[in-house]
Amino acid sequence: MKKSFITAIGIVLSVGLYAKPLYNLKPVKVADGIYCSIGDFNPPTKENKGNVNNTCWIDIGDSLVIIDPGPTYKFAKEFADIATKTTHKPIKVAVVTNYHDDRLYGASYYRVKHIPVIAHKSIVDDIKNNPNKFKRLPNLLSKENFSGTKLITPDTLFDKKYTIKGSKRSVELLKLSPVSEEHSDIVVWVPDVKFLFAGNIVFNNRALNYTKNSNMKGWIEALNKIKAMKPKIVLGGHGSTFGKDAYKTTLNYLLDLKSQVKKAYDSDVDMSELMEHIDMSRYNYLKHAKQLNHHNANDYYEQLDWE
């Protein structure tokens, strides 16, 4: 009797521990049939467990579309469980809006579940050309938290446009420019509610990261195309702000950065003195802006040098 009782208690405790969510996700409604989990505004840390990007599900009638699987297998499973239990519908596909580790690693869960993972065809080269991007999370997270997570290449690739059809609505995946922040950046467009998930083309609440992979002309082009689409709701890949004007902070930031760095470059300002001629302080309300303003200006200056 005593042994059976202790065994039963052990089972209850083990089930309770297993059932405890790692990420404690709380998706919010951003449009009809569209719910998103908002990531932390910081870079990946042990505390946020890599959850820094926004992840959404879109109800297309007979099934669901997942946008950006997240940083780990466990994150993807937790989000998928919430989505399916809330809607009582299966997941049809998972979409990855660029190759970054905080959105791609979670695709390993959908691969195990035999759910197609869709991305732009340039993601293959982005993964190949940026191997260091995938060392961050396995080095940062515990083996337990990272367990089951693997780097996978999406199995469905497209070029300019891909349409996912459901019984009640369609979802369009669009490539707006050859390169914006990254080569593999795409947006997700839901025409019936004019909702646009912009991935890393749009940042809010935290400063954007202009890297050596980024392209100023292409990024601004993509943002102007978003403007021309006249969306009612825009949600970026980072930040909690969503609405018809949510792309404007990123667009204004890039236009200011381009104008000021180009002026300094054309005036033969040495790169070591660049920040004496750049004033991006109007964006200091964004998290990490002071550090990233310097980094962004230097990277764009170096690109002008190469051009």
Low-confidence stretches: 1-18
What would CATH call the architecture? 4-Layer Sandwich
CATH topology, what is it called?
Metallo-beta-lactamase, Chain A
Shape: globular
- Mean pLDDT across all residues, rounded? 94
What percentage of amino acids are in beta strands? 15-25%
Q: Number of domains in the coordinates?
A: 1
Radius of gyration over alpha carbons? 21 Å
What profile does the largest beta sheet have?
7 strands, mixed
Question: Can you characterise this structure?
Answer:
The chain is of the alpha/beta class. It has a single domain, classed as Ribonuclease Z/Hydroxyacylglutathione hydrolase-like (Metallo-beta-lactamase, Chain A, 4-Layer Sandwich), CATH 3.60.15.10. The chain has 10 helices and 13 strands. The chain has helices at 2-19, 73-87, 101-104, 107-112, 123-129, 136-140, 143-146, 216-229, 248-266, 289-306; strands at 28-31, 34-37, 55-59, 64-67, 91-95, 117-120, 156-158, 161-165, 170-174, 187-190, 195-203, 233-238, 242-243. The strands form 2 sheets. A 7-stranded mixed sheet has the order 1-2-3-4-5-6-7. A hairpin with a 4-residue loop joins β10 (187-190) and β11 (195-203). α8 runs antiparallel to α9 and α9 (248-266) packs across α10 (289-306). The longest helix is centred in the last third of the chain and has 19 residues, at 248-266. The radius of gyration is 21 Å and the shape is globular. The protein starts with a helix and ends with a helix. Residues 1-18 have low confidence and may be disordered.
Q: Helices, strands, pairings?
A:
Layout (H helix, E strand, L loop, with lengths): L1 H18 L8 E4 L2 E4 L17 E5 L4 E4 L5 H15 L3 E5 L5 H4 L2 H6 L4 E4 L2 H7 L6 H5 L2 H4 L9 E3 L2 E5 L4 E5 L12 E4 L4 E9 L12 H14 L3 E6 L3 E2 L4 H19 L22 H18 L1
Parallel strand pairs: 4-5, 5-6, 6-7, 11-12
Antiparallel strand pairs: 1-2, 2-3, 3-4, 8-9, 9-10, 10-11, 12-13
Helix pairs in contact: 8-9, 9-10
